[in-house]
């Protein structure tokens, strides 16, 4: 838990990074999204680092509201697009992103080099 708190602090202090949360009146966390700026030689864009909605709160518009916050933040920071990456097995998430207007642009594999 301490490692996660450290990462959250680093994210919230970094320029072009934001975490948006959705809470109930009783301060129960129902969802969160992390969006960050990505700078490459060829282009720059905003990217979703993660979006998670409590399993008992899905299909209530929370994900849509959180993504709306990301869109506003990305526009305010001068980005023209938001990208996100999903595993092929996340079929319900694929449906959600298509429903809110995202287009699948490619499939890819992820490789890891442990250090």
UniProtKB/TrEMBL annotation:
<dbReference type="InterPro" id="IPR016181">
    <property type="entry name" value="Acyl_CoA_acyltransferase"/>
</dbReference>
<dbReference type="Pfam" id="PF00583">
    <property type="entry name" value="Acetyltransf_1"/>
</dbReference>
<dbReference type="InterPro" id="IPR000182">
    <property type="entry name" value="GNAT_dom"/>
</dbReference>
<dbReference type="GO" id="GO:0016747">
    <property type="term" value="F:acyltransferase activity, transferring groups other than amino-acyl groups"/>
</dbReference>
<feature type="domain" description="N-acetyltransferase">
    <location>
        <begin position="1"/>
        <end position="115"/>
    </location>
</feature>
<protein>
    <submittedName>
        <fullName>GNAT family N-acetyltransferase</fullName>
    </submittedName>
</protein>
């Amino acid at each position: 838990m301490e490692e996660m708190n450290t990462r959250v602090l680093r994210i919230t202090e970094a320029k072009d990074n934001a975490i948006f949360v959705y809470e109930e009146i009783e301060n129960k966390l129902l969802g969160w999204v992390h969006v960050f700026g990505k700078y490459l030689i060829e282009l720059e864009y905003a990217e979703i680092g993660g979006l998670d909605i409590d399993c008992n709160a899905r299909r209530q518009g929370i994900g849509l509201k959180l993504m709306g916050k990301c869109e506003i933040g990305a526009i305010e920071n001068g980005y023209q697009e938001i990208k996100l990456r999903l595993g092929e097995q996340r079929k319900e998430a694929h449906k959600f992103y298509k429903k809110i207007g995202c287009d699948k642009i490619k499939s890819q594999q992820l490789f890891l080099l442990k250090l």
